[in-house]
Specification:
mainly beta, Tachylectin-2, Chain A, 9-stranded mixed beta sheet, 6-stranded mixed beta sheet, DUF3616 domain-containing protein, DUF3616
Length: about 375
């Protein structure tokens, strides 16, 4: 007998909850992010402020990426919490040997901070060419940018006063272990270790060679705790469920990151998440609570929400709707402000949720100032655990 879906669906048809969440759609404020002009930056061909695709925050330091580059940007929040500047640009090609060089597009869609590292993940996706005005021949081409197959981590160096830098290595003065930059071994071929591994999976495998935004394999969310790395997929959505790939990483003798074998005998495990048929656009840990930004798999306009999975269970394969709480509905604006990245900003008043948008509305950007404005939303603490 086929299993029925749970009837307790608090994030589907609860009109009272929808009314309350409608109020939450208004951000507390904005933070203006100011970047250096691209002409003054190495290996950057596109204005950073136009294409911010991911966020991570520690102290006063906001790390972000433009999905058209292979660099990481760091800016510092001022004392008023309304602006962030003092832009520093980190070129990943100086720390890693990238198959497409330091200027090749990495399509970085995931950033996460854990245990003194900034973790960085490319989309690992294929892309379809745009059609010509006259014919569809170019439209048939599906391309692979080899830098997109990146997954790695870079040590964070605490400079004090909430300022953190990315460095190749940290050698501590005490007995704590040192930290070094490391990545999953890369190749020019699209058969990266992660894509090759998942190509054999009965659920994910059929979608590996489809382009992104066409329900093809596409990593857009990253959450890390200890050795455990969660990859949130924009595609594929399988049977209406969004998918998370979980891996426990180790460092090889050659200095590369590699997934360990898990209890299931594989080097990965899958988790299915019911997001009302939508996919994952970003993720973030808040203690043991996993925050998930949802959105459309394709280029469709869609309402976007932030869901919380309390005490995310690594042994639970399927998270039905009743295991999630919808904590925020984001404003829907046709043609712009597509939520792309979330991060937790710790302030004196409590935790706040920082949200950056793809295709930002005109009032969010200023080319003369190289400015991008991101939203700050109130973020409730996770429920207290029973003693």
């Amino acid at each position: 007998m086929a299993k029925t879906r749970p009837t307790n669906l608090p994030h589907r048809d609860d009109a009272e909850a929808d009314a309350a969440l409608a109020l939450d759609r208004r951000p507390l404020r904005r933070i203006d992010l100011f970047f250096t002009e691209r002409e003054a930056l190495d290996h950057v061909d596109d204005p950073i402020f136009e294409d911010v695709s991911s966020l991570a925050v520690i102290g006063r330091s906001i790390f972000c990426t433009c999905d058209e580059t292979s660099t990481v940007e760091r800016i510092l929040v001022d004392d008023n919490g309304k602006a962030a500047g003092e832009h520093v640009n980190f070129v990943l090609g100086r720390s890693f040997k990238l198959p497409d060089g330091p200027s090749g597009e990495m399509d970085i869609e995931g950033l996460a901070i854990a245990d003194g590292y900034l973790w960085i993940c490319g989309s690992h996706s294929l892309k379809r060419d745009e059609p010509d005005d006259d014919d569809l021949s170019d439209f048939e081409d599906i391309d692979w940018d080899s830098n997109r197959g990146f997954l790695g981590r870079v040590p964070l160096l605490d400079r004090g006063n909430g300022v953190f830098d990315l460095v190749d290595a940290v050698e501590p003065l005490d007995d704590t272990p040192g930290r070094q930059a490391a990545m999953v071994e890369m190749t020019v071929s699209k058969k990266t270790p992660i894509r090759k591994m998942l190509k054999k999976d009965p659920l994910i495998g059929p979608f590996i060679d489809l382009p992104c935004k066409e329900n093809g394999f596409d990593i857009e969310g990253l959450a890390v705790k200890g050795e455990t790395v969660l990859l949130g997929l924009r595609g594929p959505v399988v049977g209406g469920f969004a998918m998370i790939v979980r891996m426990d990483m180790k460092l090889t003798d050659k200095g590369y990151l590699k997934p360990k074998k898990l209890k299931n005998g594989k080097r990965y495990a899958l988790h299915a998440i019911d997001l009302n048929g939508q996919s994952i656009r970003d993720m973030n840990w808040q203690d043991d609570r996993l925050l998930i930004l949802s959105g459309a798999t394709t280029d469709l306009e869609a309402l976007q929400s932030v869901f919380a999975v309390e005490d995310f269970d690594l042994d639970r394969q399927v998270h039905h709707a009743d295991a999630l709480t919808r904590i925020l509905d984001l404003p829907a604006i046709r043609g712009s402000d597509h939520a792309e990245g979330i991060a937790i900003l710790q302030e004196k008043a409590g935790a706040r949720l920082l949200v950056a948008y793809d295709s930002p509305h005109d009032d969010r950007v200023d080319p003369d100032e190289q400015r991008l404005s991101v939203d700050v939303f109130e973020l409730a603490d996770p429920p207290a655990k029973a003693s």
